[in-house]
């Protein structure tokens, strides 16, 4: 599988492949035309409750990962669709998250690559 994580504010490149926005909220200051998103997969983002609880606090990171993985177990169909895409072409998981080390897309990518 060929999956990468990319910030929504980074330059859009042809080499990005399929661009899948994996944030519940649309990135601020970016138009839909400029973002060039192929699919907005809101279904596999952390629930509003989990997102608010986590609040990108590194002290919650370990528990956040466990809770988010539990939520993802309910999204097998969407996860499988992304895996199939990634087997055929490059997939870029697009996020506006500022932290490169503590964000949900890291967990999502790991889950996608585990199967």
Mean pLDDT: 95
Shape: globular
H/E element sequence: EEHEHHHEH
Name the poorly predicted regions. Answer: none
Number of strands: 4
Helix content, binned percent: 40-55%
What count of helical segments does DSSP give?
A: 5
Total domain units: 1
Q: Structural class given helices, strands, pairing?
A: alpha/beta
Task: Characterise this structure.
It contains five helices and four strands, in the order ββαβαααβα. It has 115 residues and is an alpha/beta fold. It has one domain. It has a four-stranded parallel beta sheet. α3 crosses α5. The chain is globular. It holds the Pfam family DUF488-N3i.
Summary, kept brief:
The chain is an alpha/beta fold and 115 residues long. InterPro entries: YeaO-like (IPR052552).
Main traits of this protein?
globular; four-stranded parallel sheet; 41% helix; alpha/beta; single chain; 115 residues
């Amino acid at each position: 599988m060929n999956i990468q994580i990319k910030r929504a504010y980074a330059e859009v490149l042809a080499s990005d492949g399929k661009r899948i926005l994996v944030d519940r909220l649309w990135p601020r200051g970016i138009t839909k035309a400029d973002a060039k998103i192929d699919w907005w997969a809101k279904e596999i983002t952390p629930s509003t409750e989990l997102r608010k609880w986590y609040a990108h606090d590194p002290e919650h990171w370990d528990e956040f990962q466990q809770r988010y993985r539990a939520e993802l177990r309910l999204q097998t169909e969407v996860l499988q669709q992304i895996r199939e895409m990634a087997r055929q072409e490059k997939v870029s998981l697009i996020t506006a998250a500022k932290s490169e080390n503590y964000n949900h897309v890291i967990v999502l990518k790991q889950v996608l690559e585990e199967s």
